[in-house]
Amino acid sequence: MKVDVHPTTQYTLECVLCQKENDETKTSTYCTFCADVLSVRYHKTSPAMQVPLKAYQPDPLKHHLSTLTQLPRLSKTYDIDLWAKLEFEHPSGCFKDRGSAIEVQKALELGRDAICLASTGNMAASVAMYASYYNLPCFVFVPEQTSEAKLAQATIYNATILRVQGDFAKCEELCKEFALSGNVYLAGDYVFREEGQKDFSYELLAQGVTDFDAIAIPVGCGTNFAAIYKGYAEMKAAGLVDRIPQLLAIQPEASSPVVEGIFKREKVVKELVQTIATSVAVANPFDFHKVLHAIDETDGKAYTVTENDILDSLREMAVTEGHFTEPACALPLAAMKDHSHEWQGKKVLLVLTGSGLKDTRVVAKHSLTPPVLEPTIEAIQEYVGSGFVEMQKRAWGKARSVVLADVALSDTRDKVFNSYVEAIQQRGKTLQKHEIEALQSIVLQEKEGVPSHLEVLDYAVTMRKEGLVEASVKLRLHGVEVESETKGVGPVDAVLAAIRTHSDTHCKILVKNHEVDILSPQTDSLVVVTLTLEHEGRQIRPKGASSDTLEAVIHAFEKGYSVLAEQLADQKL
Question: How far is the C-alpha of 186 from the C-alpha of 178, rounded, in Å?
Answer without folding.
Answer: 9
